[in-house]
Amino acid sequence: MTGVPAPIALTCGEPAGVGPELALKAAANLEGRVPFFWIGDPRHLPRTTDIFEIDDPAEAMHVPTGRLAVLRHDFARPTQAGTPDHANAQGVVDVIGRAVSLVRSGKASAVCTAPINKKVLQDGAGFAYPGHTEFLAHLGGVDRVVMMLACPQLRVVPTTIHIALKDVPEAFTPDLLDATIRITAADLKRFWGISNPRIAIAGLNPHAGEGGAMGHEEGDWMIPLIASLKAEGYALKGPMPPDTMFHAKARDGYDVAICAYHDQALIPIKTIDFAGGVNVTLGLPFIRTSPDHGTAFDIAGTGVADPTSLIAALDMAWHMAHASAKGPTK
């Protein structure tokens, strides 16, 4: 990729959720600073006076300031905010596939996904994937991806994600941590321009095991694995005590923190920047970001939904597209 990246493809997500109204708010707030276009049915937007329909993604680079570029994708039915319609489920799935196709063809530089409701897609379209990320991995032709949450002050990666805490020690394996480190380092190079990312590894146990007094995983296999990867040239720290690695001075010492489980990673970032966190999928052959919230059926259509996370997700996708074009710089 050279020159100015192509615009970002924003999927509509669940049309009965907050996605459509947030797309309009994001366009108004960004004022053309991040070129993007929304793929969906204009009937699902709360206002059509603020849209600019396009026939080709390239037109999104020249949309009047504050208006939402819309690449039309007709759905089966109109929608009512807060009330999902199973008849529209296949349209949601098809929009995701269309966005990925546009990125892979070079007509878009990244995919930013609005929230979906998995149950609606499963019931209405026979959606066979646990969630958005697994479907995107399928479309990208990869077997393993990594979830990263990011804000300006912190990037975190949970090695294990949506599993019970009691299952973490068995799922948190040397193979999984090794793959997570490699994928994370590769994409920080590719999409953030960091030539040799500094990666902090959190211990599984309190005080990183405290020499075996509070757990044995650190000594049994984490320390040897980290030493092996450092010998390959990876810039790693750890295993670090999880309770002392997220204050401001500690964060200055690394580019990303890789954690053992979901809450170990998400509690610090949501404490630091609850509204502005961005979900990034690493390991895909394309850029994918997403706001870190759900469909919020309970407030859909009320006008109170906060666009901060979507704006941050679009901003981050645009930054990643530029960094990818330039290559590593530090």
UniProtKB/TrEMBL annotation:
Q: Report the EC code(s) recorded for this entry.
A: 1.1.1.262
- Record's subcellular location: Cytoplasm
Keywords for the protein's UniProt record, in alphabetical order? Cobalt, Cytoplasm, Magnesium, Metal-binding, NAD, NADP, Oxidoreductase, Pyridoxine biosynthesis, Zinc
GO CC annotations on file: cytoplasm
Keyword NADP carried by entry = yes
Q: Which reaction does it catalyse?
A: 4-(phosphooxy)-L-threonine + NAD(+) = 3-amino-2-oxopropyl phosphate + CO2 + NADH
Give GO terms for biological process: pyridoxal phosphate biosynthetic process; pyridoxine biosynthetic process
Q: Which residues bind a divalent metal cation?
A: H162, H207, H262
GO MF annotations, alphabetized: 4-hydroxythreonine-4-phosphate dehydrogenase activity; cobalt ion binding; magnesium ion binding; NAD binding; zinc ion binding
Extra notes? Answer: The active site is located at the dimer interface.
Annotated function: Catalyzes the NAD(P)-dependent oxidation of 4-(phosphooxy)-L-threonine (HTP) into 2-amino-3-oxo-4-(phosphooxy)butyric acid which spontaneously decarboxylates to form 3-amino-2-oxopropyl phosphate (AHAP).
Q: Assembly and interactions? A: Homodimer.
**What name is this protein filed under?**
4-hydroxythreonine-4-phosphate dehydrogenase
